[in-house]
Write a structure and sequence with these properties.
InterPro entries: AhpD-like, CMD-like. The protein has 6 helices and no strands. It is mainly α. The radius of gyration is 15 Å and the shape is globular.
């Protein structure tokens, strides 16, 4: 199983378990997240770039992978991705670099699938 399949399978499996508990607060939070990234005054592409950059600064590898996948789905180019990476690294500082390495690896997997 490759990096992308492993991440997506795990995420889907665990989300199913979380949703099966029927917790109103968790369900509402997940819904809020879904709605925040829907088309609005900002297009989805812009929102995903913001989400990716914030995830890198906050150093959440799962979030980075998720937003990289969405960025790939909405057609971001490698040049656009690296501009997002550069902003996140600038804002987050050198502590973002390990996450940048993993993000580049994941992006390459997306491009090669």
């Amino acid at each position: 199983m490759n990096l992308i399949e492993e991440f997506n399978d795990y995420r889907a499996r665990m989300n199913d378990k979380i949703m099966a508990e029927d917790n109103k607060v968790i369900k509402r939070f997940f819904n809020l997240d879904t709605n925040a990234y829907a088309e609005g005054a900002l297009d989805i592409k812009s929102k995903e770039m913001i989400g990716l950059s914030c995830s890198m600064v906050l150093r959440c590898d799962d979030c980075i992978k998720y937003h990289l996948g969405k960025c790939y789905e909405v057609g971001l180019t490698k040049k656009e991705i690296f501009e997002v990476f550069s902003i996140a690294t600038l804002i987050g500082g050198s502590i973002v670099i390990p996450h940048l390495r993993r993000a580049v690896e994941y992006w390459e997997e997306l491009e090669n699938q």
